């Protein structure tokens, strides 16, 4: 089956004063895939995401989201995407149910707060305030809120930064579920194991340019085909495997 493009970025440029943060990048994201933007700090990942999310003006190039031209109808793009809010965006006096109801009202979308909280293992926290949640719960809640307007695409900027291994793996499962329900996921991460586990394809961005784009498997195969060998013999388990083996897979925060 032919893959359908849901995001088309062409020759995208972003300058801040004299500095060019994004230097003419082009890529496609296919419908219902998990697509990763990987790259060192300052590579231009967040800038690129924020332009697609309609939150930042581009300098040049074109962006199409689900056939909608960013230059012509950014409002229509906003309606079909879900974006994680900065944590400061959550009203401090509202509990999780009230926050979901508020967002549902803003989006003019009927929403069942308890069903959404259940999906993200946050049922017990329905009456809690956002600031009282653990790091993992906060991330789960902020991903849940991206789904309130029933978007076709969600954007997750470093969703597992700072989480313990259990919470990280739990979030991976939730992201896979979101994708299994038909949503396209665009993610940035600094964790290569995360990208390898979650992403169907990823783009490696460096100094504002895409220097590689493919599936994780294909990228690894290309490196190996070029004669690359690991310096150390690969062990059959990692320190993270030891950690999970000793401490279990259950979330600790609840
Ligand atoms: N508002 C701004 N004004 C000036 N320069 C900016 C602005 N926002 C970002 N930059 C610069 O643009 C470059 C790209 O930043 P961006 O946040 O897109 O990178 P990133 O790949 O997301 O990095 P990180 O992994 O650290 O989040 C950086 O050099 C950054 O300092």
From TrEMBL:
Q: What InterPro entries does the record tag this protein with?
A: AAA+_ATPase, ABC_transporter-like_ATP-bd, ABC_transporter-like_CS, ABC_transporter_ATP-binding, P-loop_NTPase
The keyword Nucleotide-binding is annotated on this UniProt entry: yes
Task: Write the record's keywords in alphabetical order, separated by commas.
Answer: ATP-binding, Nucleotide-binding, Transport
- Classify the source by domain of life: Bacteria
Q: Where is the ABC transporter domain?
A: 7-232
GO terms (molecular function) for this protein are: ATP binding
> SUPFAM superfamilies attached here?
P-loop containing nucleoside triphosphate hydrolases (SSF52540)
One Pfam family from the record? ABC_tran
> By its UniProt entry, which PANTHER family does this protein fall under?
ABC TRANSPORTER ATP-BINDING PROTEIN
Q: What is this protein called?
A: ABC transporter ATP-binding protein
């Amino acid at each position: 089956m032919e893959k359908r493009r849901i995001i088309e970025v062409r020759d995208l440029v972003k300058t801040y004063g004299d500095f060019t943060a994004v230097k003419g990048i082009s890529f496609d994201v296919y419908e219902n895939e998990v697509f990763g933007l990987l790259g060192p700090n300052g590579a231009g990942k967040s800038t690129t995401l924020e332009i697609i999310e309609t939150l930042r003006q581009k300098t040049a190039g074109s962006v199409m989201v689900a056939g909608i031209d960013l230059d012509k109808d950014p409002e229509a793009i906003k309606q079909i995407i879900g974006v994680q809010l900065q944590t400061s965006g959550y009203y401090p006096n509202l509990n999780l149910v009230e926050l979901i109801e508020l967002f549902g009202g803003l989006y003019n979308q009927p929403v069942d707060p308890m069903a959404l909280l259940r999906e993200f293992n946050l049922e017990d926290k329905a009456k809690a305030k956002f600031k009282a949640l653990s790091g993992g719960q906060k991330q789960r809640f902020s991903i849940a809120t991206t789904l309130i307007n029933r978007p076709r695409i969600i954007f997750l900027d470093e969703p597992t930064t700072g989480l313990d291994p259990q919470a990280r793996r739990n979030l991976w499962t939730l992201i896979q579920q979101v994708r299994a329900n038909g949503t396209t996921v665009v993610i940035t991460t600094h964790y290569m194991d995360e990208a390898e586990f979650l992403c169907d394809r990823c783009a490696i961005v460096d100094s504002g340019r895409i220097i590689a784009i493919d599936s994780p498997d294909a990228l690894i195969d290309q490196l190996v085909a070029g004669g690359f060998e690991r310096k150390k013999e690969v062990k059959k388990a990692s320190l993270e495997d030891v950690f999970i083996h000793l401490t279990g897979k259950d979330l600790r925060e609840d």
